[in-house]
Known about the structure:
Blueprint: H1 9-19, H2 22-29, H3 36-43, E1 48-50, E2 65-67, E3 70-72, E4 76-78, H4 91-101, E5 106-109, H5 116-122, E6 127-131, H6 138-149, E7 154-158, H7 168-173, H8 186-190, H9 193-201, H10 224-231, H11 238-248, E8 252-257, H12 260-268, E9 273-277, H13 290-301, E10 306-310, H14 316-325, E11 329-332, H15 334-366, E12 379-381
Parallel strand pairs: 4-11, 5-6, 6-7, 7-8, 8-9, 9-10, 10-11
Antiparallel strand pairs: 1-12, 2-3
Helix pairs in contact: 1-15, 4-15, 12-13, 14-15
Amino acid sequence: MSLKNCYNFEDFRKLAKKKLPAPIFHYIDGGADDETTLKRNTNSFDDCDLIPNILRSVGEPDLSTTVFGRKIDMPIFLSPTAMQSLYHPDGDKASARAAEKFGTMYSMSTMASFSIEEIANISSGPKLFQLYIHKDKSFTDDLIDRCKRANFDGLCLTVDTLVAGNRERDHRTGFTTPPKFTLESIMNFAIKPGWLFRYFTNKKFELANIKHKTDKGTNITKSVIDYVNEQYDPQMNWEDAEYCIKKWDGPFALKGVMSVEDAKRAVDIGCTAIIISNHGGRQLDGSRTPFDQLKAISDAVGDKVEIILDGGVRRGTHVLKALAAGATACSFGKAFLFSLGAGGQQGVERLLQNMHDEIRRNMILMGCKSVKELDRSKIIYRN
C-alpha cells in the first residue's frame, strides 16, 4: 500500500500501522478505559441521515467558512495534537504547510514538537494555539505573549484534561515521551527500521514550547499520563479561563465543552467560539459524543459563538451533517495523525485533498451551493 492508494481513514490507518512502532501507533489509535466513547464518536453520525434536494443548478459550491477571524477554504481543519515529530520528523511543520496549502487552519498544541516561532516562520496560513494550564502559571503568560508576537489568529484552552484519562493501551505498550528503549520495548521499534533511522538522524525529540520551563517529557522519560498528572493544574477553573481570554484579547475558544450549561457560561465569560470535544474518547469513557450534543448546544448558543465539532470525523458526509446540525466547522486529529505517520506532509495533503473532494462532491449531491445552505432541513435524526 502507498499514499496514492489511500482513499479513506482506514487506508491511512493501515499504512501508518505498517510504518510506526506499535507503542506510537496505539497512542494515536487508542482511547480511555473500554474505548466505548472512542468508537461511539464516529458511529454517532450514523444516527442522522442527509436529505438532498434535486435540480438546484449548484455549479461550483462554496466550501469556505470563517473561524477565529480567518476565512478557511473548507469547513474542516487540523486539531491541536501533541508530539507530532514522533509520527514523522517534520511533525508540526509538515502539518502547518499542508494546512496552508489547502487554505485551512493548523492548530498547535502546548506540547508540540516545534516552537511557536518556528511554525510562524514557515507558515502564513491561519493558525490556532491550544493552551493547557500548568501548575506553574508563568507558562500561560509566556505562551500567550509569544503567540501574540507570532501573530497567531486565535487561542483555545483545553478544559477536559485536569487529570489524564486511563489509556490502558499506553500502559500495555509502554509508551513514553520520548520513547524509552528497554528490553521489553526494543523489538517494537526494531521491526520498524525506517522509523528508527528517521528518529535518530533528525532533530532530537523535545516539547519545544516549554523546554525552557521544564525538562519533564523532554530530558526525562515519562509516560504521557505521568506528565499530565504532574504538570497540569487539576484546580483549573472558570476564573483561569476568563484570565486567559482577557490576556489574549482576541478570538478564543474553550475546547472540551460538552454541556449546554458550560456552553452558555463560555459565552458569558467572553469566548468567541467553543469546541465541542471529548478529547477523541481519550478522557472520560462513557461520555456523550460531540455529535450527540451538537444540536442541543447549537440551539442554545449557536447565534452567539462559532461552534467547532471535534471528534469522530472521518468522512466528508460527517462534516455536512455537523454543519447542518449547527456547527460552523469541524476539526479532526486521528485522521491527520495517521496520514502524517503514513507519509509526512504528502500524507496530510493527500488526506486534505480527499476530504475537500468528498465535501465538494457531496455538497453537489445535496444540492447545496454553499455551506450556509446546510441547515436542519438537510438532516433527519433516526430517533
